[in-house]
Amino acid sequence: MSENVYPVPANVASHALIDNDTYLSMYKQSIEDPNAFWAEHGKRIDWMKPFTKVKNSSYDYHNVSIKWFEDGELNVSANCIDRHLESRGDQTAIIWEGDDPSDSENITYKQLHERVCKLANAYKELGVAKGDRVILYMPMIPEAAYAMLACARIGAIHSIVFGGFSPDALADRINGSKAKLVVTADQGLRGGRKVALKTNVNAAFEKVDHDAKILVVKRTGGDVPMTDGRDVWYDDIVGPASADCAPEPMNAEDPLFILYTSGSTGMPKGVVHSTGGYLVYASMTHQYVFDYHDGDVYWCTADVGWVTGHSYIVYGPLANGATTVMFEGVPTYPTPSRFWDVCEKHKVNIFYTAPTAIRSLMGAGKEHVEKADLSSLRILGSVGEPINPEAWKWYYEVVGKKNCPIVDTWWQTETGGIMITPLPGATALKPGSATRPFFGVQPVMLDNEGNEISETECEGILCIADSWPGQMRTVYGDHDRFVSTYFETFKGYYFAGDGARRDADGDYWITGRVDDVINVSGHRMGTAEVESALVAHPKVSEAAVVGYPHDIKGQGIYVYVTLMEGEEETEELRKELRNWVRHEIGPIASPDLIQFAPGLPKTRSGKIMRRILRKIAEDDFAALGDTSTLADPTVVEDLIDNRQNRD
Ligand code: PRX
């Protein structure tokens, strides 16, 4: 595949911040002398008390500990707002583009400062103090960014729950973090449809096991029930609040936020990110990966409910004094031209989205792209899942007109920022390859036994050999789980959970998860979570969930269910189970295909053989591999006969 190489376009190379020689020398220093490298780059943000120590990390399984800049003090909101006031107070910080194309607002750094300070004071009035947790269950409105930054200002720890999660999932996270406050809106607005946020919060509160308050932004003006003494309208408390709020000095290692994410086992984990290392890493990757220049308009289409929204809509761009676009809607509303119309309207220079969006817009036809004037675009980005070469080429040719490098950025909730990626002015591109590591990142390829593969060209398990500043620090409330999830399987390395191929040039091609995590439209999901939701249904006795290739979503959710004795396999029940999962977890977990399976393939010790289930779901049952360990081989024939994903 290496013959398909796209060199750095000349128009980008001549102005880029980093060329190839600079990349190579900076990368070398970052690995050979991380203390010197990060001491220098740690100064890119403002410290209230400068750090004297830089890296202090151990991947030793018995003593995993990660600290960066550990004696420094800073405040993230001061870095994202206050330090820009003098030089760019009147520059737009956030361009908000509403769901309705006629709805948009430019918010300057000065306005951002005032609004965040007022909200921070309102938090204090509601009893939120340094170290307290605040849950945000928000639509994509500017108040979501204010709510994050106001937490950072007073040292509260935010935990955003994506607005597509169900009341149950929300309640788990409110309880798990013992949050004092939930910030939400009356309703969200997406693709012309209303999302019942406050109603969901009310339902969640039936399961909340401690006292907490609810702060409600009026977005649609819809009629939502409020409870006296617990619920407060945003405008009522933020309106009269003082706009004077000094930023709280925080230790570099104090948590900035918790973000729940799915793993291969058990319920989602609260990934904890730090204040200092995280901000250094988010801002540096944002600047170099997107070749961000002062005055550029930058748009990341993610939702703030995911890590991409944290690092690359809010913290990275604002720390760099950027103009960042925040989009409330969906790519296809009111028409499949929406993304491109917004690019034209706001003269977007840098555009960062997910392959699933590219694939669905590709299906809508290139006439929707060609209608818009996209001459402002300079850099394109991709994140969330491997981008298939066909989608890459369409993105490059139809959207980027062969002038815009595509940065295919591999990273994870846990890594805080981008890990493997091209740099626009430095890296030749290969469709489907995330190419090379960012500064300070040491990818290694391991075989199944955990030995490092020394050959350049190889396929294996992707691990990272040493710490970088943006790395997660722990699992909230469960450091043992942090250690066992990421440092136990392959001792001495950070285990990312992905497989990869390294080509003869040393470029990395991510091949997908090697664990029981699936990636549906760029949303990460643990198959165990969906299974546990299904077995909670009274008619289900057993369930197994696997991913299968899906043209638009990347992976779809394929469910095998064994029903309780006497239950009938009907279409009606399929619908009921689908709704059940939507209700238990949220619409993003809705099964695509459900197969009733009187028996599941198990080993004699009772372990479900997922390898076989995956193959059947892929409609690739000729290659089932070794089935000799099955307790009952006839089960497989029945599964094949009744498979749901036939050509
Ligand atoms: O499997 C990888 C895939 O997404 C996973 C991380 O998901 P999440 O924590 O939700 O973060 C998504 C946004 C950073 C990874 O383990 N992934 C992410 N980016 C890429 C990718 N797979 C291939 N290529 C990418 N560029």
UniProtKB/TrEMBL annotation:
GO terms for biological process: acetyl-CoA biosynthetic process from acetate. Residues 529-607 form the AMP-binding enzyme C-terminal domain. It comes from the Bacteria. Its EC number is 6.2.1.1. Its cofactor is Mg(2+). It catalyses: acetate + ATP + CoA = acetyl-CoA + AMP + diphosphate. Acetylated. Deacetylation by the SIR2-homolog deacetylase activates the enzyme. The modification N6-acetyllysine is found at K607. GO terms for cellular component: cytosol. ATP binds at G384, E385, P386, D408, T409, W410, W411, Q412, T413, D498, R513, R524. Keywords: Acetylation, ATP-binding, Ligase, Magnesium, Metal-binding, Nucleotide-binding. One of its GO terms (molecular function) is ATP binding. Residues 23-80 form the Acetyl-coenzyme A synthetase N-terminal domain. Mg(2+) binds at V535, H537, V540. Residues 82-467 form the AMP-dependent synthetase/ligase domain. Transmembrane segments: none annotated. It is an enzyme of class 6 (ligase). CoA binds at R190, G191, G192, R193, T308, S521, R582. Belongs to the ATP-dependent AMP-binding enzyme family. NCBIfam families: Ac_CoA_lig_AcsA, PRK00174.1. Catalyzes the conversion of acetate into acetyl-CoA (AcCoA), an essential intermediate at the junction of anabolic and catabolic pathways. AcsA undergoes a two-step reaction. In the first half reaction, AcsA combines acetate with ATP to form acetyl-adenylate (AcAMP) intermediate. In the second half reaction, it can then transfer the acetyl group from AcAMP to the sulfhydryl group of CoA, forming the product AcCoA. This is Acetyl-coenzyme A synthetase.
